[in-house]
Amino acid sequence: MAYDEALQTLWENVLESIEDRTFAKLTLAKTIGNTEIKNVFMRPVEEEGNLLFECITRYKTEEQTELLSFDDALERIKAYLLNPFLNLILFTTEYDLVLKVNKKGNGSLSDKAPTFQDPSLVMQELINDKNS
Question: How far is CA 23 from the centre of its chain?
Answer without folding.
Answer: 9
